[in-house]
Amino acid sequence: MHRREAYIEAQVCQYAERRGWRQRKVAFVGRKGCPDRWFFRAPGRVVIIEFKDPNGPTAYHQKKEIAWFRENGFHVHKVDSIEQGCAIFDAFGPAEDGDPDEDS
User: Fold this and answer.
1) What is the arithmetic mean of pLDDT over 88-104?
2) I need a labelling partner for 79 at 20 to 30 A (CA). Which of 3, 21, 43, 69 fits?
3) What's the pTM?
4) Please, are residues 84 and 47 in contact by the beta-carbon 8 Å criterion?
């Protein structure tokens, strides 16, 4: 992963977590093209993001996986800037209070 891509990913992950999202780095076993990060928030919301260097190419396997997710109703995005990534989570609004999984 390029340094710029890693920086964008880290900043967007921190922003999403501050807005009440949990995130996980995901990899498919025995299959190429898995989007980088999956974000989860109640009630049952899932956002999937493939992070890229600005103007970085998307591999064939990644395009194929992203297309399948979109065709099946998942929120999946290719993100190449911090602003673009943060806007995705802004669109969902603020986190709901009283998450039962949060530690006190």
Assistant:
1) 67
2) 43
3) 0.85
4) no
CA distance 28 to 15: 25
**pLDDT by residue (tens digit) across 58-79?**
999 999 999 999 999 998 999 9
Q: Which is nearest to 38 in space by CA: 1, 64, 75, 63? A: 75
Return the percentage of the chain with pLDDT > 90, whole number: 78
What CATH architecture does domain 3-90 belong to?
3-Layer(aba) Sandwich (3.40)
| Two tokens, residue 12 | 């967007």
Which long-range contacts link 95-100 to residues 24+ away (Cβ below 8 Å)? 95/19, 95/20, 95/21, 95/41, 96/20, 96/42, 99/20, 99/42
Report the alpha-carbon distance of residue 17 to residue 86 in Å, rounded: 11
